[in-house]
Amino acid sequence: MQLEPVNAANQKIALVPTMGALHPGHVSLIKAAQQIADFVVCSVFVNPTQFTDPKDLEKYPRPVEHDIRMLEEAGCDLVFMPSVTEMYPQQEQWHIDLGSAEFLLEGAYRKGHYQGVTQIVKKLFDAVQPHKALFGQKDYQQVLMIQNMVQYFNLPIEIVTCPIIREQDGLAMSSRNIHLSAADREHALVLSKALDFVKTNFEQQSVQALEAQASAMIRETPGVELDYFTIVDGTTLEPQEDKQAKNLVALVAAKVGHTRLIDNMLLS
Ligand SMILES: Nc1ncnc2c1ncn2[C@@H]1O[C@H](COP(=O)(O)OP(=O)(O)OP(=O)(O)O)[C@@H](O)[C@H]1O
Ligand SMILES: CC(C)(CO)[C@@H](O)C(=O)[O-]
Ligand code: BAL
């Protein structure tokens, strides 16, 4: 990949890393990138090292033609779609200290996931050398881990977080939604409904009561298996029951049918 002319012209480069199967959530990142940079690169790479479930990796959607068309329509300047051997030409070790939050929530359910995520994001940063990189709040913990990786290596890259884009009925857009059956799609709505419930009742009820009611809503929904619904400090991801505290976030993960989904909402 040759980005020298862009660098020589002193243009600001923004990178939007994705795993493809693009939807309007991804397009919102491209659009946000266009507002804050002169040249926008989107990477499309299904990164094997961040998958803990081989079946999840195998069935991850890869609609390449559709993705290229969407990126053209969005006016993306360059698409970086490397192969696995380009990104991983040889066996390599990767382990960095991402802080204690690495092992909580998603990190507890997908062991080693954030080592894989930060490994590939560092490789993408090295290849593209962007000034800025944009990520979705939908993957809340991922943004924290990438910020920690940037700090670990002292990289001169600004990490920008973009809001969650939802379907009209509230379901957070996700590439994995394609795996939902019609019934799953209905049942999956309970995740955003539970988050909305917590946001609406935040002033009136205790954190414990909110978590209990939201969890019950989800557990009572057929075909949905709750992994966690929790209200935590938005930086440490440790439980936080003091509602006066700033930076509280509610995070949820559940299996809907055979598909594991995540979502979250900022509370204060
Ligand atoms: N609904 C959304 N709104 C905003 N950003 C999103 C949304 N969905 C994904 N993103 C962001 O797009 C980037 C690429 O994500 P990715 O390619 O994994 O898509 P995805 O829809 O999150 O897929 P999946 O969750 O099924 O892996 C990430 O920074 C992610 O947070
Ligand atoms: C950041 C990322 C592209 C790394 O593979 C992936 O985790 C994703 O799509 O969120
Ligand atoms: N969107 C986060 C990437 C993953 O689930 O592996």
From TrEMBL:
Beta-alanine binds at residue 50. It is found in: Cytoplasm. Belongs to the pantothenate synthetase family. Homodimer. The lineage of its organism: Bacteria, Pseudomonadati, Bacteroidota, Sphingobacteriia, Sphingobacteriales. Its EC number is 6.3.2.1. (R)-pantoate binds at residues 50, 142. Pathway: Cofactor biosynthesis; (R)-pantothenate biosynthesis; (R)-pantothenate from (R)-pantoate and beta-alanine: step 1/1. NCBIfam families: cyt_tran_rel, panC. Transmembrane segments: none annotated. It comes from Pedobacter quisquiliarum. One of its GO terms (cellular component) is cytosol. This is Pantothenate synthetase.
